[in-house]
Amino acid sequence: KAGVTQTPRYLIKTRGQQVTLSCSPISGHRSVSWYQQTPGQGLQFLFEYFSETQRNKGNFPGRFSGRQFSNSRSEMNVSTLELGDSALYLCASSLWGQGSTYEQYFGPGTRLTVT
Amino acid sequence: DQQVKQNSPSLSVQEGRISILNCDYTNSMFDYFLWYKKYPAEGPTFLISISSIKDKNEDGRFTVFLNKSAKHLSLHIVPSQPGDSAVYFCAASPNSGNTPLVFGKGTRLSVIA
User: Fold this and answer.
1) pLDDT, tens only, B51-83
2) Residue numbers in A near B44 (CB within 8 A)
3) Rounded CA separation A45/A43 (Å)
4) Cα(B75)–Cα(A94) distance, integer angstroms
5) pLDDT above 70 covers what percent of chain B?
6) B9: closest chain A residue by CA
7) How many Cβ atoms are within 10 Å of A72's Cβ, its own excluded?
């Protein structure tokens, strides 16, 4: 079974631009979560989508948004990029969602650098 | 306010010895805990989990201990191998509903040959 894939793997953008990242979950998984990882901050939860609906949202500004398609693929968008948005963005999929016994499977991440 | 804390950013251990990674939590609603391992340029991979109805869970060289009264858990790796060198994240969740996992900041383990 193919794992979680994320595209692109690396991205360099300029402050003020916007960016869209893509995530394809493991086949059959319906939940997709997004995380931001910065040095010294661990993994910070952005949002979770389940069956095309945002089910949970972390404490990030409205510049961060996402969506999920009927095939469970998900995209996240960051508008008006700031230098502080430079980070590794990780996508994780699971069968039913977070918590309980349903472990999440992570993709390799997209490394975003904002200059 | 950090609900899941990994107070040691890094740890060095000799090959063959025991590695002990610690994690503390503050939210008493947490009752399911997971450890993830992350290599550079890869996403985190699930390692081991424990539910609050247990105080120990073992999987090969990896054992997780949970002390609910102290709100503390630890991951023991015995014996440590150079391939275990990675960043280890502790995560916690209430076992009801679909509440997002809360991750610690990670501990970088270096196993020296």
Assistant:
1) 889 999 999 999 999 999 999 999 999 999 999
2) 43, 90, 106
3) 6
4) 23
5) 96
6) A40
7) 21
